[in-house]
Amino acid sequence: MTDQISSTFSALADPTRRAILARLALGETSVTEIAAPFEMSMPAISRHLKVLEKAGLITRGREAQWRPCKLKAEPLKQASDWLEEYRNFWEQSFDRLDEYLKALQKKEKRDAGKKNGSGRKRR
């Protein structure tokens, strides 16, 4: 059994599936319209759609001849929330690195001033 976040990231691992989600973010559309920009067969597009549907990222309906696909963004929100925890970690790490580099630059300027004699005190 795979958890929701694993299914979401697995589905997002493919650039075609990410492009399909980007298209569906604009609104509900048919499989034919989804397939139009891709140079691949309809069965290949259908396989991508099945992966997205299984991951809970899209829903597919049926209205006579029309089979609309719709984005379901809830799993993306869960993945985003999970990533947010690590974004905070990296921001804090970069802030500490920034402080260290600024302290290092100040020390280098102070040391360079001493070598040039400008750091000497006059009597």
Automatic annotation (TrEMBL):
InterPro entries (alphabetical): ArsR-like_HTH, HTH_ArsR_DNA-bd_dom, WH-like_DNA-bd_sf, WH_DNA-bd_sf
Classification via Pfam families: HTH_20
Source superkingdom: Bacteria
GO MF: DNA-binding transcription factor activity
Record domain HTH arsR-type: where: 1-91
PANTHER family registered for this protein in UniProt: SLL0088 PROTEIN (PTHR38600:SF2), TRANSCRIPTIONAL REGULATORY PROTEIN (PTHR38600)
PROSITE patterns assigned: HTH_ARSR_2 (PS50987)
Protein name: Metalloregulator ArsR/SmtB family transcription factor
